[in-house]
Amino acid sequence: MAMARLRLDDDERRVMQILRSWGARSRKDLAADLGMSATKITRLSATLLAHGLIEECPGAAPVAPGRPAVPLQISPEAGYGVGAMLHRGLLEVALVDYAGGVIAHRSAPFDDPDPRVFAQRVTTAMHEMAIANRLLGRRLLGVGIGVPGAALSIEGTRRWTVDSLAAWRGIDLKALFEEHIGHPVWIENDANAAALAEYYVGGLMRRCSTAVVILLGHGIGAGIIVEGRILRGAMASAGEIGCLYPTSAPRPSTLDLLSTLREAGCAIDSLVDFDRVIQGYEPVVDAWVRRAAGQIGPIINWGIAWIDPGEFVISSPLPTPILDALVRHIDFGAMHIGDHCSVPPRISVSTLQGAAATIGAALMPIHATAVG
Asked: A Gene Ontology MF term for this entry (predicted)?
C-alpha cells in the first residue's frame, strides 16, 4: 500500500486527530470524545490497525479489574518523512516518524544556488541518515521541501524565491526534485512548513486549533493554521506578510540581522558559529532586536483582528535568547485589541531551536494522509 495515496474517511481522520492531539486513548475514551458508539469505534480502530497507522500501547496495564482497556496510539512505525530546508549558508535535513517524533536532524554548510546540487545533497543525506537510524525497509512516505518565497502557481510548485535562490525561480520544483530524489515530493512555503512543525511537534495542537507562526528567515512570513489545516489562500500565498514592509527599508529577518552586523563591521556571512562570531557586537544585536520588535508588533495586532488566533509563535534559525528578547520588547500597550480579548495575546518562542521549517517539511507527507 502506498501511504501517500492513502485517503482516510472523515471519521477515521477524527480518530487520528484525537490520538495526535491527546496521545494514547482507550476505545471507550475515543467513543466519548467523538460521540460515537463503541461498535463504530471498534470498527474504525480495526481498520486503522490493519493499515498500521495506529497500534495498541505495548505493555499497557489494565485500567480496571477484568478485561483490560488497552489504549491506542499513533504508530511511529507506519512510516517516516524527510524534510529539507536551506538557511543562509546551511542545509538542514530531518527525518520524522509517523507519530511526529524527530528521528534525526542534520545541518551542514552549503551555499550552492543550483537546485540540482541541492537535490543531490539531500538525497545523499537522507540515505546516510536512514542507514544510521536503521530505517532501511521502513516505509518512506515522501520528501517535503520548505522554500522561501511566494507562490507563482495555485499548486505552489513554482515560486518567486528569495534573491539567494534566484536559480530556483519559476521552475516546477516538485517535478525537478522528484526526478533527482526519486520519491514523492511536497513543496511548501517555509513559513507554512514551520507552522506544521509547531502544530504537531511544538504542541500547538494541544493548546489551540487556530494559530499563527511568524518565521524570521530569509525574509519574514507567516504560517496560519485554522482548525488544523494550513490556510493557503486563493493563490497559495496566504501569510506573505513580507509585502507589508517597504522594499526600500529593512525588515525583521535573519538576513537583515546578518546585514546589520556586517554594516557594523562584523565579519559574518551565515549562521555558522553565530554566537562566537558576534562577540563584541552585542549592542548591535540589541538595537536590532528593539527595532524588529517595533516592526512585528503591528503584524501581531493585525493578526488578532483578522484571524483571532489562540497563539502566535515566533520561529527562526536565530538563537533562542534573541527571540526571547524580541518578544519581551513587543509593545502590547500600543496595540488596539478588541473587546473579545481580555488579556494580551499569547506570544511564544519556538522550542524547536531553528529547526521548525525543516521538521515541518518532513511532516508534509504525513500531514497529507491526515487532511484528505
From this structure: kinase activity
Res. 68: pLDDT tops 80 = no
Nearest to 299 by CA among 219, 200, 198, 207: 219
The H helix count followed by the E strand count for the chain is 12, 14
Domain boundaries, the chain: 3-74, 79-195+357-371, 205-351
Query: Quick one: CATH architecture of 205-351?
Result: 2-Layer Sandwich (3.30)
Count CB neighbours of 48 within 10 A: 21
**Measured distance CA(209)–CA(204) in Å, rounded:** 8
d(CA 118, CA 121) in angstroms, rounded, equals 5
Report pLDDT for 3.
44
Residue the block writes with cell 496560519: 224
Mean pLDDT of the chain: 90
Residue 170 is classified by DSSP as T
> Within 10 Å of residue 290's Cβ, how many Cβ atoms?
13
pLDDT tens-digit readout, 95-117: 999 999 999 999 999 989 999 99
* Percent of the chain residues past pLDDT 70, beyond the cut: 94
Q: Which residue matches cell numbers 512555503?
A: 189
pLDDT score of 64 more than 60: no
Rg (CA), the chain: 22
Grid cell locating 70 = 488497552
What angle (nearest 5°) sits at the alpha carbon of residue 368, between those of residues 357 and 189? Answer: 35
CA 323/CA 340 separation, integer angstroms: 27
Decide if pLDDT at 4 tops 50.
no
Which residue type occupies 153?
Answer: S
pTM of the model: 0.88
**314, 293 contact by CB (below 8 A):** no
Domains 79-195+357-371 and 205-351 fall in the same CATH topology: yes
| Interatomic CA distance for residues 358 and 145, integer angstroms | 8
| CATH top-level class of 79-195+357-371 | alpha beta
Looking at domain 3-74, its CATH class is: mainly alpha
pLDDT tens digits, one per residue of 272-316: 889 999 999 999 999 999 999 999 999 999 999 899 999 999 999
